[in-house]
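How a chain folds remains the central question behind the approach discussed here. The record that follows shows the chain in one-letter code together with its fold in token form:
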Amino acid sequence: MAFFIPVPASSFSIPHRSQVVANFYAHTNPESHPFPQPVELRSSMSEDEWHARTLAIWTHFARYTWARVLRAYLVLALLLSLVGPISANLVVHRSVVFSRSSVLPSLLNLLPYIPRILYNGVEPISLNSSDDEIRERLSLIRRGHMINFIVVCLIFVILWAPYLSYKSLGRRRLAALLRSFNQADAAKGNMQALNWICSRTSTFQSNGTVVIELPVAFVSANQPSLFHQAAYLPDYIQKPAAPQAPPMYTHATAQKGPGLAGATHADVAHKA
């Protein structure tokens, strides 16, 4: 289910505003399990409008954040980003070590040399090496560095560029969706101008958080506080407001039953 936590906003960011935090979860579809509308927003929008907005936000998260294909692609990109440079080093160092061999060994013959290739890299040259051997060795090292750099660039272009582009497209569409909510709320009047914000989302997390900011003056004038007896009660429990209720209360005071009319405390204690 979704949890809605009203918290005060910092006076240094947006003054005179309160926040309602709405948490969306991947395993809870608002189409089959509608999210309860926060009590602070009941006078700002209808229940159908709230349901439509939560469904649109959850659908966006399910497509651009919680998609299984996106998670599998991210895991594959992380593995290839780790294996790719190591494989390039193996190929480069193999070519350096066996550069003077007439026949390159097969993959099975190369397995015993992998620890030596990984940790030793290029074999040390002798002390009486000629200038041509030194220049050849430096040329091989520069070539290996260039190959490693090209492999890293190809990994970024082939694997990470599409992922970052897709995530950037999702962020832009989410910003446009929340902006449409803000514009629709602002058209109702300044006192009901809500501000929908989503800071960030993670692919490996199964939840998303949307912050709804609204003026504190509007909340205090139209909605009860968290300590009120009618705050956050379901519709099937909360009684309708009574017009003859005292100030700051939505229900009338309890009346004495017909059996206790005119009875004193002593009579009540004696009957008990």
Q: What stands out?
A: The chain has one domain: 1-235. The helical segments are 47-64, 68-97, 107-110, 114-120, 131-186, 216-222, 265-271. The longest helix spans residues 131-186. Residues 1-235 form one domain.
